[in-house]
Write a structure and sequence with these properties.
Length: 390
């Protein structure tokens, strides 16, 4: 059966078709089995990393049942995020000067120093999340209960302990996002996050993907990782209240253990909600999505047009089966003309390592072996050879 192509008159098929992630000076877009990461280097040129990512849910249909698929997706997206951030670091040249250890790891293990650092960072991030959003709220609620009990010995927080823990989680989450948004490099990443959202919104609206069209759209999207995390926190609060109501009088450690055990269920429900909110626009989804969209005011910033251009390149490359005209866009390199105009008439920008050649034009395209070879042939480069949450 022939797959229906998305058109401006048939925009419903575009919903949920592509998702993405902001990275170091760039944007990753994922559509189906393609993940494309585009980064802008300091000299204004672009690096496009094109890879294939096949979900284990596609290989084993049993893993694609509701709730369970959300847990699988969470694990896969963590793994993909590590690989994507590593790819963006490589693209920005952060591993150009490897030491002996780095070269040995690359040769014998097939991984670089950046991959190891990203993996360690992810593990530490998960550990920090457990501390901040489980143990610290429990401690805060227990401390409040202890202080009150000193004045009123018979006082018991009961179900209100779960409510206090939930409020503490929300405060920690919002405070953390606000603090990191003050860091200049993180702020730029949040701007690329806004570019990613705007580009996807423009695509889903059935409009032509041009910087002018993309910039008109809002930087908030219901199918966003920020909304997913915040919704999970709210679900956790509700789950905590029910646990205290159903099993009152347990020690704090026991409640923490139960919450860890039901965490996969919370993740699964959160995933189903995000997918529903991203594909349906009605009064119920708008109400449920509102808190997450408000929080996105912290994790997305208004992008510049050159950031939007990066997101467009990733999107059109990831969706090149739907939009084969992308090849003409890719060959024209309109984004580079803007970059060249910023060089004050110089023949090359400061920092250029080589003069652009025909078929390259300053854009490096990395194609992994497990990706279909059409992009390598059609883009005529000398390369080195849904979707999910946004």
């Amino acid at each position: 059966m022939k797959k229906e192509k998305c058109t401006s008159d048939n925009g419903s098929c575009r919903l949920g078709k592509v998702g993405g992630q902001a990275v170091l000076e760039g944007v990753m877009m994922k559509a189906g089995e393609r993940t494309v990461t585009t980064c802008r280097k300091e000299d204004g040129s672009l690096v496009v990393d094109d890879r294939k990512f096949v979900s284990v849910r596609k290989k084993h249909k049993i893993l694609n049942i509701p709730i369970l698929r959300g847990v699988i997706n969470m694990v896969e997206m963590l793994m993909l995020s590590v690989k994507t951030l590593g790819a963006s670091a490589d693209a920005m040249g952060l591993e150009e000067e490897e030491g002996k250890v780095g070269k040995w790891m690359k040769k014998h293990l097939g991984i670089g120093v950046t991959d190891v650092v990203m993996t360690i960072g992810t593990v530490l991030g998960v550990a920090l999340s457990l501390f901040l959003f489980m143990f610290l709220p429990n401690f805060a609620a227990g401390l409040i209960e202890w202080v009150v009990k000193n004045s009123i010995p018979t006082f018991e927080l009961g179900v209100w302990k779960a409510v206090i823990e939930g409020v503490v989680k929300v405060v920690i989450f919002l405070l953390y996002l606000w603090l990191v948004s003050l860091i200049p490099d993180i702020k730029r990443t949040f701007m690329y996050h806004g570019a990613e959202h705007k580009t996807i919104a423009c695509f889903e609206a059935g409009e032509e993907l041009t910087p002018e069209n993309v910039m008109k759209h809002k930087r908030f999207h219901p199918r966003c990782g920020t909304s997913f995390m915040f919704f999970m926190i709210l679900l956790g609060i509700i789950a905590g209240v029910f646990i205290h109501l159903l099993i009152p009088g347990l020690p704090t450690l026991a409640y923490t253990g139960i919450r860890i055990l039901i965490l996969p269920l919370v993740i699964g429900i959160g995933f189903e909600y995000i997918m529903l909110a991203g594909k349906h626009d009605n009064i119920l989804t708008r109400i449920l999505s509102a808190p997450g969209l408000w929080v996105q005011r912290l994790t997305t910033k208004e992008p510049t047009e050159d950031m939007v251009e990066v997101a467009i390149v990733s999107t059109k490359c990831a969706l090149r089966d739907e939009f084969p005209e992308f090849m003409e866009f890719f060959k024209s390199r309109e984004w580079e003309k803007d970059a060249a105009a910023d060089c004050d008439g110089a023949s090359t920008c400061e920092g250029d390592s080589a003069e652009p050649t025909e078929g390259n034009h300053g854009v490096e395209v990395f194609v992994k072996e497990d990706v279909q070879p059409d992009i390598a042939q059609d883009s005529a480069t000398d390369s080195l050879g849904g979707e999910e949450s946004l």
